[in-house]
Amino acid sequence: MKKTVVITGSTRGIGLGMAKEFLSRGHNVVVTGTSDQSVEKGLKNIGENENVIGVPCLVENTDSIEAVWNKAVEKFNTVDVWINNAGAATSRNGLEELSYEEIKRTVDTNLTGTILATRIVSSKMLEQGSGQIYMFEGFGSNGQLQKGISVYGSTKRALRYFTSAAANEFKDTPIIIGSISPGIVTTDLLLRSSKSSEKDWEKAKKVLNVLADRPEVVTPWLVEQVLKNNKNGAKIAWLNTIKVLGRLIFGRMFCKKQVIDDWEREQAENHS
Fold first, then answer.
1. What is the domain count for the chain?
2. Neighbour count for residue 168 (Cβ, 10 Å)
3. For residue 264, is it within any domain?
């Protein structure tokens, strides 16, 4: 059955990758970004396709969320899946050095925006009689600690609770709530949040080269799981504990992955 999928923050990175994957399977997609320019760029990357539209959206703004829903319904009649993917991260500076603006932007986008979108979208999905809403997990969701990620990690930790709470609230309704954990994916957000200094970055790359994946590797599996899911409270996780251990133990011995190195080289070529 053809579905209509809204993905916030889908003009680049894993959101864009998922948008392309849903489209390749014949579904309708609504791409959103923070500006007309970013949406236009995302649509250009996707190419000509009658099953996609782009709508600017600031997820911390309720009118903006309403506009995305209305545009989607106007074009495709319904919204079957809403994926809260929009994300932001602070720099890797110490907490005492972070500006109010970057703290607020990260909390507003990752946490407040997701909660607001879920409130608005769940109400409309109840009216239409069905729907699925997914939250994106990230570093910190499981309580893991690392210097320089205090604010970002806190938003993701809070989102895990919110996802469970929302699933509990809607357990006797036709709405499905779930989470998506993509693992470590080569995106601009990963680069901005990880590259605090050249020394730290070179050290981090040794692990990232083993554990990270390109969006085109991860997104087909994620999209397949979303389309198959009919369980409220589902946790769709690409990089599970067994996979991490396997890569750390065997990857370093037998498979010299250079995911980050290759990706950095491509980024440099694209900007040259």
1. 1
2. 12
3. no
Q: What is the pLDDT of residues 164-181, one digit of tens each?
A: 999 999 999 999 999 999
CATH of the domain at 222: 3.40.50.720
Strand bridging mode 175-181 / 234-237? parallel
What is the C-alpha radius of gyration for the chain, rounded to an integer number of angstroms? 18
Which residue range is the domain that position 233 belongs to?
A: 4-195+212-240
Distance CA 187, CA 200 (A): 18
Picking from 172, 149, 154, 143, the residue whose alpha carbon sits closest to that of residue 111 is 154
Residues 6+ apart with CB under 8 A from 196: 91, 92, 93, 148
**Distance separating alpha carbons of residues 255 and 238, to the nearest angstrom:** 19
The reported pLDDT for the residue numbered 251 is 59
Environment class of 162 (CB within 10 Å of its CB; exposed 0-12, middle 13-18, buried 19+): middle
Per-residue pLDDT, 81: 98
